[in-house]
Amino acid sequence: MKSKHSKYIIIGAGLSGLTTAYILNKNGIIDVTILEGRPQIGGRIVTHKDVDLGATWFQQPHQYLTRLLNELNLGSFQQYQKGQSILVYNTMAPAHYFESATDASSAKRIAGGSIAVIHKLSENLGSQIKHNTKVETITEVNKCLEVLTNRGLFSADKVIMTIPPKLASTLDFYPKLPEYLLAIMKQTHTWMSNSIKVGLTFSTPFWRENNFSGTVIGESNPVIELYDHCNFEDNSFSLMGFVNEDLRAAKREDRKEAVLSYLEKYLGESVRNYLDYFEKDWSKDEFTAVQHLQPINSSPQYGNAVFTDFFMNGKLLFSGTETSKHYGGYLEGAVISGLEAARQIINSK
Ligand SMILES: Cc1cc2nc3c(=O)[nH]c(=O)nc-3n(C[C@H](O)[C@H](O)[C@H](O)COP(=O)(O)OP(=O)(O)OC[C@H]3O[C@@H](n4cnc5c(N)ncnc54)[C@H](O)[C@@H]3O)c2cc1C
After folding, report:
1. Which of 76, 131, 154, 163 to mutate to test the pocket of ligand 1 (most atoms within 8 A of CB)?
2. What is the pLDDT of residues 245-294, one digit of tens each?
3. Most buried by CB count within 10 Å: which residue of 136, 194, 200, 247?
4. Does ligand 1 come within 6 angstroms of the Cβ of 320?
């Protein structure tokens, strides 16, 4: 089988891979092919009807992401927090109502939804991105790596792997990767791969009109965290949150009813007037999660030092948020790893 050759291949068009491609492009390095398994780009960034079903927030210390947003002329805005927030320890006991301080240090969102950064980064990448192209095998052949996909064979002098390490450990590598590396890849939990997100859109932000912030927190309830998710322009109104993982196995209709009746109790019957209800269980997404769910109770350690080395005789480099020493798991970690991979490629030319 004849392969399509380029100097560099980036596997994965998430924030990390696209940051690398953007920086390489800016430095005149355009012989780059980006292989993406999904029909759409963005990876764990998905914005559906203005609702972020993947990553949403960043914070003031996330300086690399902030700088990138500025460079791309993208705005940001504070998470809406005005009015009463609700803490529900137990649905049988009275809820606790509180007001959050709205200050500059609170969580921020990207204007246009998180997907805006993906669209901007990919603006000049055009046909360099190959959608629906699932990588299966990476083989060292003479001076290059051959990458076998469901859409044929690609090859490159160097490959940057941004698939989360745990998922990447399920690909076939010839020759095999060292055992110590594979062990670390398998142990590296894919951040948020257990999450179930829910979005509800409305014709009016009725909770704001009733002096609620839209924040409803309750660890053991059907929705463990809910937030106002109206857009930057304030003309698209929604609530977004995380569904309790105990509802994962329930039928969609039963889970939806559990979510709606819980929110109705605290925000009022207007919750039932939603325009759209959608949810995304990331554990069922073959391009993020591995089959066996790993319960996760504390924030994992990311950025193992092994990921700074090249493998397969200097031809394979790992990147992606889980490989970042700083803010691993976050958008910030994805940007840092993307910048670092670009730096390593430019330095190794
Ligand atoms: C529900 C949820 C909420 C989150 N909330 C936040 C938040 O509020 N703030 C924050 O900072 N971070 C948050 N995160 C984390 C954030 O989304 C990630 O840190 C970031 O998007 C990771 O980018 P990445 O490029 O490293 O990885 P990914 O986005 O996972 O990119 C990897 C890419 O590889 C592709 N791929 C996978 N397998 C293959 C294959 N075999 N062949 C080809 N392509 C493949 C994938 O489709 C994907 O596009 C959240 C994540 C989730 C899931």
Report:
1. 163
2. 999 999 999 999 999 999 999 999 999 999 999 999 999 999 999 977 76
3. 200
4. yes
3-state secondary structure (DSSP) of residue 126: helix
Structure tokens at 178: 């060292």
| Residue of 192, 195, 199, 227 whose CA lies nearest to 49 | 199
Say how many Å lie between the CA of residue 338 and the centre of ligand 1: 12
pLDDT tens sequence across 41-73:
999 999 999 999 999 999 999 999 999 999 999
Is 145:316 a contact under the CB 8 Å cutoff? yes
H or E element at residue 316: strand 316-318
Residues 9-28: tens digit of each pLDDT = 999 999 999 999 999 999 99
191 lines ligand 1 (CB under 6 A): yes
The ligand 1 atom at the shortest distance from the C-alpha of residue 190 is 30
pLDDT at 91: 86
Q: How large is the average pLDDT for residues 168-196?
A: 96
Domains of the chain, each with CATH number or no CATH: 4-41+122-189+289-347 (3.50.50.60), 51-111+194-284 (3.90.660.10)
Asked if residue 126 lies in contact with residue 107, where contact means CB atoms within 8 angstroms, the answer is no
